[in-house]
Amino acid sequence: MDDEVAFAPSREEARRLRDELAAFIEGPLKLQVKREATVVDRVASGVPLLGMRVWPRLVRLDGRRVRKWRSSMRELESALALDADEDEVAASAQSVVAWAAQADTSRLRTSFFDSEAGRPGQRL
Q1: Which of 45, 41, 36, 33 shows the shortest CA–CA distance to 8?
Q2: What is the DSSP letter of 94?
Q3: Among candidate residues 78, 85, 89, the one with its CA nearest the CA of residue 116
Q4: Of the candidates 25, 27, 28, which has an alpha carbon nearest to the alpha carbon of residue 6?
Q5: CA–CA distances in Å: residue 113 to residues 14, 71, 85, 89, 108
Q6: What residues are paired with 59 via a beta bridge?
Q7: Angle at CA 100, nearest 5°, toward 52 and 102?
Q8: From CA 59, how far away is CA 61, in angstroms rounded?
């Protein structure tokens, strides 16, 4: 089964939710829950999940993913400078930007495009 994160107002509520979810997953869905990987803990520092850090009301990219995103965007810009197909590059750029938009990245995206606007050459 894929990763899942759930938030609850108390440890007791979190444990109850964990048990209910496990019963549903193992019952009607006939899937296995990795009990040793199931954690009930405070979320002060967020929960690492799929290259992001998740809090109850906030999702951020981890540092490695931020660097990878910037690198991907620069590669796409370079592809445009080398006369790559503009439609293909635009589709790829849209995909990369949409992925990043799943997290709270508005400042990252804005700062990237603002800083790129100061460079010569084509812009994404």
Answers
A1: 41
A2: H
A3: 78
A4: 25
A5: 41, 13, 21, 16, 9
A6: 54
A7: 70
A8: 7
Per-residue confidence (pLDDT) for residue 121, from 0 to 100: 47
The token pair at 33 is: 């829950």
CA distance 54 to 46: 5
88: tokens are: 């293909």
3-state secondary structure of 58: strand
Task: Please report, to the nearest 10 degrees, the dihedral formed by the alpha carbons of residues 103, 97, 110, 68 taken in order.
Answer: 80
If DSSP codes are grouped into helix, strand and coil, which group holds residue 30? Answer: coil
CA distance 101 to 70: 13
pLDDT in tens, 37-61: 888 888 888 888 888 999 999 999 9
Burial 86-107 (b: 16+ CB within 10 A, else e): eeebeebbeebbeebeebebee
Query: Taking the model in full, what pTM does it have?
Result: 0.65
Contact 76, 122 (CB under 8 A): no
Contacts of residue 55, Cβ cutoff 8 Å, sequence gap at least 6: 43, 46, 47
